[in-house]
Write a structure and sequence with these properties.
There is one protein chain. The protein is an alpha/beta fold. Strand 12, helix 21 and strand 13 form a beta-alpha-beta unit. Helix 4 crosses helix 11. It starts with a helix and ends with a helix.
Length: about 700
């Protein structure tokens, strides 16, 4: 069976070479030349192949979800024609080289519809077997419930982005588009163009109801990211109710007002879908593209299509009937020989594009060897070893200063040592101090260019987090972004996903780290926030005590391979631990925890502190010969050290331990029997007064130590 009967029937019913277009055929008859007739026949054959592939993709999704008794049928069935056009006609990719840097990227923002993506990856020739589709949502399969960026748990080829939280994927896509524009500006030359691809994102109503997508869309349009193409699966259905129950906006007008070029089409009309996506790709007019694809959720399953029941696995009992209705045989997970042949042809076409690009790249590399080495290092995530980087950064000095100020000094050195390092801020560069001098500003208009290293995100923390993750997923640049620590909860979901996806190319610079913020009051004084970040698996949270620890924190953030890093920096000045050599403080901080002051007598007390409280611990221990001070800027890094190292820092024989941090206390009881912290919100007053009143002082720490005797 070359093609399923439904596709042949559809082709036969189509009006001439219009295929599946809604445009009526003209009444007048003109004699066609043999060449035009051949072209028309080829087009009809292509449309038949795409229609067949769409229905067979529907079958793969239905069979996999039915086998798992779990999953979402609505989108895979409703967007099958969109998938056919993307993977069968409009995207450039090479399934034999899934890391090709100039491939088009596809992000399934509506990640619950993951069988859409898995089906098309299989059909398109990626190394994702039918057996893996049969194991959908099963333990150790390559087809988890939501798409997961390759990591230590899953290495599914062709997955560009971890998606599931609605609105995040379409916002990540903006980060991809930023990275592509930046790479093109940085590496393309007049003689050789090695970057020039598009970013596609498929999203549904839930994605556009979530506010994060609006933040990212505003940024994308303002910076004229015309390499971004958003496809809206507009099926008029949400999980609880029909979409009209909770929304009544004109989304086309909304996206036009942002500055997008918009289209509205029948998402099941193959010819129109293909023509529209081709037009969007060809339009380099400074406007990102928004294509509203009007679709029927769960199309092909009569009992559930067009209703909110199609969202889940409610259609499982009707799978056999639906498969028969769209012309599929009884054989489950069926893919026809014709579809395999068709996609072999697609691979051949894309292979020719790939081979031509490889020739261009070789010529570019020969002409630009230093730039090529820089790019290849960036793609491979090769950085200077951490020890070498620490040695290359000058000592910071002995004067007291805020760690955000130290961070400003350090980030200049990092930008020199890591050429692909970029940074941005949610309208707080002047306070967070992470601007890269002489790096230029990214974007369109004013003093900006796409080669700029500094991003201005506006007051959009959630969007910033998703865009940063998108830049990291794209796989060229290391990106950091800043805001006040107290506002990190706006972007917490993006930090969680970055940690889950093991995105080591992203870091978060979070300043004004405690009640030391002072006059702005409790709305701006985080007390629960740092402990709240520490509970996120795979996230390193660094809260340095002085400038040298800040150096280590930044170096760790750009050399770590296993996940992202949050850098927690102070607003107020902190004393430097000048009694200890800078190199030793840096090396100790890289291990997460170390002896900042060794006891001068028999060890009988350990004071554990972090960040701005280390200075108080050092002062309180000054007159206690048996006291050891342990600085623990990064609990996560400390926990990764050997048992022998941890025993050398916190010997189990010493149980008299006290910890101090200007934050809520519970987590520190893992290490100490007594904790001095802030288990309440702060108040508005100068920072030093707030700190003293709430017990963050050497005097109070000494009193608490005395009470332990």
């Amino acid at each position: 069976m070359k093609f399923s009967m439904i596709a042949i029937a559809a082709t036969a019913l189509a009006a001439g070479v219009e295929g599946f277009s809604t445009v009526a055929a003209p009444r007048s008859v003109m004699r066609a030349s043999p060449l035009k007739m051949a072209d028309a026949a080829t087009e009809v054959d292509t449309k038949a192949a795409l229609a067949t592939a769409a229905n067979e993709a529907r079958g793969l999704a239905m069979d996999s979800i039915a086998a798992a008794h779990s999953g979402h049928m609505g989108l895979p069935l409703g967007c099958a024609e969109v998938g056919a056009v993307l993977y069968g006609s409009q995207m450039q990719y090479n399934p034999k080289d899934t890391q090709w840097i100039n491939r088009d990227r596809f992000i399934l923002s509506a990640g619950h519809g993951s069988m859409f993506l898995y089906s098309w990856l299989n059909l398109a020739g990626f190394d994702l077997s039918i057996e893996e589709l049969k194991n959908f949502r099963q333990h150790h399969s390559q087809t988890p419930g939501h798409p997961e960026f390759p990591n230590s748990e899953h290495t599914t080829p062709g997955i560009e982005c971890t998606t599931g939280p609605l609105g995040a994927g379409v916002s990540n896509a903006v980060g991809f588009a930023v990275s592509e524009k930046m790479a093109a500006a940085k590496y393309n030359t007049e003689e050789h163009k090695i970057f020039g691809h598009h970013i596609f994102a498929l999203a549904g109503d839930g994605c556009f109801q979530e506010g994060i997508s609006a933040e990212a869309a505003q940024f994308a349009a303002h910076e004229k990211l015309d390499n971004l193409i958003i496809l809206y699966d507009s099926n008029e259905v949400t999980l609880d109710k029909m979409a009209e129950y909770t929304q009544s906006e004109d989304i086309i007008k909304r996206y036009e007002s942002y500055g997008f070029e918009t289209y509205e089409i029948d998402g099941h009309d193959l010819a129109v879908v293909e023509e529209t996506i081709a037009a969007a790709k060809a339009s380099d007019n400074g406007k990102p593209k928004f294509i509203k694809c009007n679709t029927i959720i769960g199309k092909g399953m009569e009992e559930t299509e067009g209703t909110n029941a199609a969202h889940g696995e409610a259609g499982v009992p009707y799978v056999d009937k639906a498969r028969a209705a769209i012309g599929l045989p009884e054989e489950k997970w069926f893919v026809s020989e014709g579809t395999r042949d068709f996609f072999a042809g697609v691979q051949e076409k894309n292979g020719a594009i790939y081979d031509e690009w490889q020739s261009t790249y070789a010529a570019w590399k020969e002409a630009n060897p230093e730039m090529a080495q820089e790019l290849e290092d960036a793609v491979a995530d090769n950085t200077m070893p951490a020890d070498d980087m620490l040695a290359a950064i000058p000592e910071m000095g002995e004067a007291a200063e805020a760690t955000r100020v130290s961070g400003y000094k350090v980030i200049q050195e990092i930008a020199k040592l890591v050429p692909n390092y970029i940074s941005g801020s949610a309208d707080l560069h002047g306070s967070t101090r992470n601007y890269i001098d002489n790096g230029g500003n990214f974007g369109a208009g004013f003093d900006k260019s796409y080669a700029g290293k500094n991003l201005y995100f506006g007051i959009r923390e959630h969007g910033m987090g998703a865009i940063l993750n998108g830049i990291a997923y794209h796989g060229i640049f290391k990106a950091s972004g800043s805001t006040f620590l107290v506002f990190v909860d706006y972007m917490r979901p993006t930090i969680r996903v970055a940690s889950l996806a093991e995105l080591n190319r992203v870091s978060y610079i979070l300043t004004h780290d405690s009640i030391g913020v002072g006059e702005d009051g409790p709305t701006h004084q985080p007390v629960e926030t740092v402990p709240g970040l520490r509970v996120i698996p795979n996230l390193d949270v660094y809260r340095p005590a002085d400038a040298e620890e800040t150096v280590a924190a930044y170096v760790s953030s750009v050399t770590r391979k296993e996940g992202p890093t949050a850098l927690i920096l102070s607003r107020q000045n902190l004393n430097q631990n000048n009694d200890m050599p800078a190199a030793e403080r840096r090396a100790g901080a890289m291990k997460g925890g170390y002896i900042a002051k060794k006891e001068t007598g028999d060890l009988d007390l350990i004071i554990i502190a972090t960040g701005s409280e280390v200075q108080h611990a050092l002062e309180a221990a000054a007159d206690l010969p048996g006291a050891r001070v342990v600085s623990m800027p990064c609990v996560e890094a400390y926990e990764r050290q050997s048992d022998d190292y941890k025993e050398s820092v916190l010997p189990s024989s010493v149980t008299k331990r006290i910890a101090i941090e200007a934050a809520v206390t519970p987590a520190w009881y893992k290490y100490a029997s007594k904790v001095v912290g802030v288990d309440r919100f702060g108040f508005s007053a100068p920072g030093d007064i707030v700190m003293k009143e709430l017990g963050m002082s050497a005097e109070n720490l000494s009193a608490e130590i005395a009470s332990m005797n």
